[in-house]
Write a structure and sequence with these properties.
Elongation Factor Tu (Ef-tu), domain 3; 2 domains; seven-stranded antiparallel β-sheet; about 30% strand; disordered N terminus; binds flavin-adenine dinucleotide; NADPH-dependent ferric siderophore reductase, contains FAD-binding and SIP domains; FNR_nucleotide-bd; FAD-bd_FR_type
């Protein structure tokens, strides 16, 4: 255990807020010390937490200012313990921050979980009578509180305005924005498939699609009450599926099979088997040139593995045109 990290912690957050940007080395990722500014219960299982933070203006996005499926790491402190210090000055991460964090005893270091930046709104300066508005970020947390809860879902369920959260995400000063996987290239037809954990990413993607794109978004959520209002300038049909107590992924697989039929003549390539209990299923190619179909699929790893096999082997889709991401695994805690 690296006790130095914990000892520094009492002064760490204060130091983080007083360093100047000139002293703050430019790195791909940085730590953002955020405060909850609003909590909105979107439905029984979706809770939107809105954050502000002095350095949020430094949060990265793509060249168009979009976040799409951009992933962030949220750091939840262990009960009764402050988070180990991750930054040198302001939010600039220590070079070995992740190893240092891992070296801290599990019972006190807290947990790291992966979420999607559902929306990032830049600050608006004061204008006439209108007061300035601080930059804000929304994260939509799924509350999986029954039959397998976890520290991140529990943190979100209890969050109130004024609470703090440390988040690790891309730094705008770096240039390239790390953490965006949606890469459809020139594809004009899209298939977006996911369970509730992928709804924030799919919603953010749908909102930014150009009008000439068409296709389907298929979303499986716990109940009908979790169907959210999502708009898109593109010609995308959004199909919501309520699980209503059925096993995870059953409806999702059925609908994808109904939408995209297997190839009539030949089987496609057999994708290598992935042990979803030992490895993270993650295959995110940049779509090859062409205007065909691009698929983006994320959710519970076993369901995604099954869909990957169906689309690549049975339908014969080019695996370079499909992004598959295991966002979580039933029965396991993933960081
Ligand atoms: C790139 C990426 C983006 C993601 N974006 C989001 C997002 O925007 N919103 C979001 O809510 N999640 C998102 N997830 C999924 C999220 O990271 C996991 O659900 C995570 O396990 C939640 O952490 P936890 O501490 O609540 O539960 P954990 O401690 O990780 O898990 C505890 C138990 O709960 C089970 N579990 C975990 N998630 C669920 C679930 N959704 N339903 C039922 N059981 C579950 C686990 O299998 C385990 O048994 C994303 C994951 C990735 C990889």
């Amino acid at each position: 255990m690296s006790s130095g990290i914990l000892e520094n912690n009492a002064t760490g957050l204060e130091a983080a807020s007083i360093g100047s940007l000139e002293d703050d080395p430019i790195k791909p990722m940085r730590a953002f010390d955020l405060k909850v500014s609003a909590v909105t219960q979107l439905s029984e299982h979706f809770r939107r937490i809105t954050f502000t933070g002095t350095d949020l203006a430094l949060f990265g996005s793509n060249a168009e200012g979009q976040t799409l499926d951009l992933r962030v790491k949220v750091m939840i402190p262990a009960p009764g313990h402050a988070l180990p210090e991750l930054s040198n000055i302001r939010g600039s991460l220590q070079d070995d921050w992740y190893q240092s964090w891992l070296a801290v005893d599990e019972s006190v270091r807290g947990v790291m979980r992966t979420y999607t930046a559902r929306a990032l709104r830049p600050a608006v300066p004061a204008h006439g009578d209108q007061p300035a508005i601080a930059a804000e970020m929304d994260i939509d947390f799924v509350l999986h509180l029954h039959g397998g809860s976890g520290p991140a879902a529990e943190w979100a369920a209890a969050a109130i305005p004024g609470d703090s959260l440390m988040l690790v995400g891309p730094c705008a000063r770096w240039g390239d924005c790390l953490g965006i996987e949606f890469a459809p290239g020139e594809a004009e037809r899209l298939l977006l498939v996911g369970d509730e954990t992928a709804v924030p990413a799919i919603a953010a993607i749908l909102e930014t699609l150009p009008a000439h794109v068409s296709g389907h978004a298929v979303l499986e959520v716990p109940t009908k009450g979790d169907f959210l209002a999502i708009s898109s300038p593109a010609n995308m049909e959004i199909r919501w599926l309520a699980r209503d107590g059925m096993d995870h992924g059953v409806e999702l697989s059925r609908q994808v099979r109904a939408l995209i039929a297997p190839a009539a003549c030949e089987l496609g390539e057999e994708p290598e088997d992935v042990d979803v209990d030992a490895t993270i299923l993650w295959e995110t190619p940049v779509a090859a040139a062409g205007h065909g179909l691009y698929a983006w699929i994320a959710g519970e790893a076993a369901t995604i593995r099954e869909l990957r096999r169906y689309l690549v082997r049975d339908v014969g889709m080019d695996r370079n045109a499909v992004a598959f991401m295991g966002y979580w695994r039933k029965g396991q805690a993933l960081s």
